[in-house]
Amino acid sequence: MLRPTRRVASRAPRTAIATTLAFLTLISGVRAGMAETFAYVGNADSNDISVFKMAESGEMVPVQTAAFSGVEKPGSSTPLAITPDHRVLIAGVRSQPFVAVSFAIDPKTGQLSHIGNGPLADSMANIALDRSGKFLFSASYGGNKVALNPLNANGVAGEPKQVIPTGLNAHAFLPSPDNRFVFATNLGSDQVLAFAFDAATGTLTPSDPPAHKVPEKSGPRHFVFHPNGKFVYLIHELNGDVAAFAYEAKSGAWDEIQRTTALPEGFSGKPWAADIHITPDGRFLYASDRTTNTLTAYKVDATSGKLSTIGSVPTEKQPRGFHIDPSGRYLAAVGELSDIMTVYAIDQSGGALTKLKSYATGKKPNWVEFVNLP
Fold first, then answer.
1. Smallest Cα–Cα separation from 187: which of 168, 163, 208, 210?
2. pLDDT class for 12, splitting at 50, 70, 90?
3. Do residues 322 and 335 touch, judged by C-beta distance below 8 A?
């Protein structure tokens, strides 16, 4: 007769334990979903980085202005890169001595603290990290070269391991999604160079074929891979074209499938296209043009990779850089001639941009990076 009583008695603590575990799981899940979002803006003329904390509403709160230690003269731009583990932010300084300034990112506050400076091979218009976070890629527009620097354990760049001559005006130097290839745009030579990359040894070798040609005087500048790894989108500075390519991961080959424009409808002046980014879910693509001070939006067909234009919106003066936050809900664009960052909401059904608010930055802002912490 005692068995039923024992069963009931045993259920009570089990139920309590199950309830407690469910509660803890819920709490831990809430905490896991409460990553804070921070934006970092590279300011060329003031030689610093503006740090903002972004709220769920897209509101930005300034939290820090981080100056470059050991840098006296401003450069023409300030490219930024963040390590894949979100522990270190690196800024490229384009004044002599050419250095990569490394900052530790505080995982709670997002604030930056200077770690040290490492040498760059030249004045680098673009810097990027490989997918392992162990190597820094950089491209020199005026020096017509690309370079690879190993990162030390503390996140400071070591001496360049490889410096490779390119065609005219190397502008971007970025790895493929699987880290097996690295591609370099040559704006003045109208080509994209391809390198095989050995991440174990940190070695670059020319691919076969070593270059992909684009139309003359188009000026290939920046590019971005679709999150599915099947497509690449390339913006051309001199004619304002946005080209879509099918990407073959095994060989690293680019095959053009479409060409459209980053210019607003009816514009007939001289293009000066700049930046290009895609939402984390791959549904929408955006491009900036500095002559018209506009951002153009596109829908992306997930199957074909092709683009359909949504439309253009006005933005800050000379929008050299912009980026999309990790949630894919907001876009932040900076204007080199306005010293302002403007935040836009991305319509989740159609991709259109709606201006929310503008914020003061340092002087001549040209680069935006987002990160979720921790």
1. 168
2. very low
3. no
pLDDT confidence band for 70 (50 / 70 / 90): confident
DSSP string, 272-339: -EEEEEE-TTSSEEEEEETTTTEEEEEEE-TTT--EEEEEEEE-SSS--EEEE-TTSSEEEEEETTTT
Residue 27 in 3-state DSSP? helix
Per the rule left: phi > 0, alpha: psi between -120 and 50, beta: everything else, 183 is: beta
Is 18 a residue whose pLDDT tops 70?
Answer: no
Phi and psi at 195, nearest 5°, equal -130, 140
Q: Facing residues of 247 across strands?
A: 254
> Facing residues of 287 across strands?
276, 296
The residues with which 203 forms a beta bridge, in sequence order, are: 198
**According to the model, what pLDDT value does residue 28 have?**
39
> Token pair for residue 302?
């997930």
d(CA 315, CA 175): 29
Whether the CB-CB separation of 325 and 344 falls below 8 Å is answered with: no
| Spatial CA neighbour of 50 closest among 358, 296, 344 | 358
Query: How do strand 181-186 and strand 191-198 relate by DSSP bridges?
Result: antiparallel
CA distance 205 to 198: 9
Mean predicted confidence (pLDDT) in 118-127: 98
- Rounded Cα–Cα distance for residues 250 and 32 (Å): 35
Write out pLDDT tens, residues 23-44. 443 333 334 457 999 999 999 9
- Residue appearing with tokens 């608010």: 357
